[in-house]
Amino acid sequence: MHQSLKAIRIGGIVCMVGSVGEVNAEDLSAVTTKDIFRSLATVRCIGVGNRQSFLEMNKIIEGKNIKPVLDKTVFNFGDLKAAYQYMVRIPHMQLFFTDPGRKIRAI
Asked: Has this prediction a pTM greater than 0.70?
């Protein structure tokens, strides 16, 4: 956390997503209220459920062979404007992702 607050741009957002194992008390004690105020950062905590629920969810996803729905339309990275215009026209479109080949695909 201390490292994140030092690295974040002024006014940035630091998200603490769940916790893996126990929280390191030494890390948290190194962060002071003054550190947060100096960074002008927003600190958000995001709860994510427990490990057992995650494992059960994954077992169901695998057992039912659930796959994400991918749009077949692929844009070159240089066509970002057209990709966003496409996303606006398709109401169920939620996000884009890029692959290492610099292509943009809608999900």
From this structure: no
